[in-house]
Amino acid sequence: MNHLEYFNTLDPRPKLTVVGAGPGDPDLITVKAIKALESADVVLYDALISDELLNYCKESCEKIYVGKRPRESHSQNSINSMIVEKAYMCGHVVRLKGGDPFIFGRGMEEIEYAKNFGLETAYIPGVSSSIGAAGCAGISLTARGVSESFWVITGTKTDGSLSQDLITALKTTATIVILMGMSKLSQISEICRLLGKGDLPVAIIQNGTTERQKVGVGFAKDLEIIAEENKLSNPAVIILGEVVKYASLKEIHSRIEIFKA
Questions:
Q1: Which of 15, 68, 86, 97 is catalytic?
Q2: Is the pTM of this model over 0.70?
Q3: In the prediction, which pLDDT does 12 show?
């Protein structure tokens, strides 16, 4: 009997649900995501997940931390294998991922892998940090009359490099959101300077949407200074664009004026 034939004999059938937990605030999780957690037999969760979300799981649910931070993470291959093994052993596996699993979250890879082994699969969207962190810092990515679009760019590709899409994006008037880019601040600033965008307003938002949220603002040429002066580090979102000047938080306006001086 092959794995697909075996799969069809099981009750309940092995299943994977890839769930977006949102950008940090546990209250931003969706009702549908909560229902998935309540029915889960196993939850594989990442580093940025609020522990409060695990309280939705039933008492018998097995909760497994799989990291996804540098130097402490399970490899993606080991996570894929664990999904399949736990689904066949236990039933319903929920893969709980920060933000939205389809925005640089490798959620699709996990679903495709699971499908190859006969698992039933489902996807539940989450609030992306690219949008949620900006909004909770008072920044509208598409402020009327200021920005007509926005780009979401990874700061760290699979090979560790910064996406060259940043160069293309900086040639437009779009708002640019960079995820996983805190190790590339110097490189981002240099690219901005070379393209004549050194004075483009920027914001760095750490722990967006949570009570630990911190915001630093200034100009693209000073990204490293902004991070250092405000003691900003991962997890953080970098926003470049004129919309930063129109943020609703008064302190952002005052900080921009300080940087102009």
A1: 68
A2: yes
A3: 65
